[in-house]
Amino acid sequence: MDISSYQLLLLDVMMGEISGFKLANMLKKDKKTAEVSIIFITAKDTENDTVTGFNLGADDYISKPFSLREVIARVKAVLRRTATAETEKEPEQLVYQSLIIDTTKKKVSIDDQEVSLTKKEFEILLLLVQNKGRVFSREDILTRIWSDEVYVLDRTIDVNITRLRKKIGVYGKCIVTRLGYGYCFEAE
């Protein structure tokens, strides 16, 4: 049985050979099952038990007696919350052919060779690749990448784009200049 393929588990605190608390603890410590939602259903309704359940990573705690309608409503609520959280997660890697942008490690690689980029170059590349085909004016890029840090000239964008194109080699031609409008990343 592959528990990692489940979206949600209903656990009783007082199960046969192993307690629900112990099983939940084991599941949350394992990378493969840590994201599976857990709802405890139990006759143990002391504040201590409830707090223990939540501290172990439970998404909800239902004490007996309960109606089936309540359990179904709570299951649906947890699944809605976790589905929203999943769709809002930013992907850890953006991939375009052999160009890989690792958003967690803040690294770029081409053909498994790391490309050394400055923070601003990385952020510009990420912005353009995340929004393939969308044209960003210099002002858009300044606002998103430099925000309110310092006063930066429009030419700063041009200089960073030029350096970025050189550093990413064959993919440099994917960063296209739209005269009078700005820059975009065009997939071939």
TrEMBL record:
The modification 4-aspartylphosphate is found at residue 12. GO terms for biological process: regulation of DNA-templated transcription. Keywords: DNA-binding, Phosphoprotein, Two-component regulatory system. One of its GO terms (molecular function) is phosphorelay response regulator activity. Residues 1-79 form the Response regulatory domain. InterPro entries: CheY-like_superfamily, OmpR/PhoB-type_DNA-bd, Sig_transdc_resp-reg_C-effctor, Sig_transdc_resp-reg_receiver, WalR-like, WH-like_DNA-bd_sf. The keyword Plastid does not apply. Residues 91-187 bind DNA. Residues 91-187 form the OmpR/PhoB-type domain. GO terms for cellular component: cytosol; protein-DNA complex. PROSITE patterns: OMPR_PHOB (PS51755), RESPONSE_REGULATORY (PS50110). The keyword DNA-binding applies. This is Phosphate regulon transcriptional regulatory protein PhoB. It comes from Bacteroides reticulotermitis JCM 10512.
